[in-house]
Amino acid sequence: MPKETLKYTNDEVTVVWKPKLCIHSTICWKGLIEVFNPKERPWIKMDGANSEKIIEQVRKCPSGALSYFLNAEAPADNNTADKVVAESANMLTVEVTPNGPYLIKTECLIVHSDGREETKTGTVALCRCGSSANKPYCDGRHRKIGFEG
């Protein structure tokens, strides 16, 4: 079973990876293979680029599986997994990705069918294809089944 949260750090920045949120868009490694290489272990190599390039690439993650914090600004309780750098906290954006999930960008409340409530911050990827094993969240299976829409 994969860990809930993994952290990779250099002197300036820490990248937080939440595998369960990953929709396997490939944006991270196609944009910066020197840092994000799924064929290597560990797959994130913080010495592969400077901190600015790493931050720029992490911000492109469509699912919110990758986030970061500056080490100098780390919260005192060190609960860094909950800190996500959001582009705009005041505006809700819902993006329908071609042949992929709905991307909701902001803070939102998810109410599950069993009544559980969960607040998500940053980007949330919701399944559109119906095949995710992690509903209501996308797990990337739309690519495996050839979903179009």
Q: How would the blueprint of this fold be written?
A:
Layout: E1 6-9, E2 13-17, H1 27-31, H2 51-58, E3 66-70, E4 93-96, E5 102-105, E6 108-111, E7 117-120, E8 123-126, H3 141-145
Antiparallel strand pairs: 1-2, 2-3, 4-5, 5-8, 6-7
Characterise the protein shown here.
Helix content is 12%, strand content 23%. The protein starts with 5 loop residues before the first strand and ends with a helix. With 149 residues, the chain is of the alpha+beta class. Mean pLDDT is 83; it is low at 76-89. The protein has helices at 27-31, 51-58, 141-145, and strands at 6-9, 13-17, 66-70, 93-96, 102-105, 108-111, 117-120, 123-126. The protein has a 3-stranded antiparallel beta sheet, covered by helices on one side. Strands 4-5-8 form a 3-stranded antiparallel beta sheet, with no helix packed on it. The protein has 3 helices and 8 strands. It folds into 2 domains: 6-82, Alpha-Beta Plaits (2-Layer Sandwich); 93-145, Ribosomal Protein L9, domain 1 (3-Layer(aba) Sandwich), CATH 3.40.5.
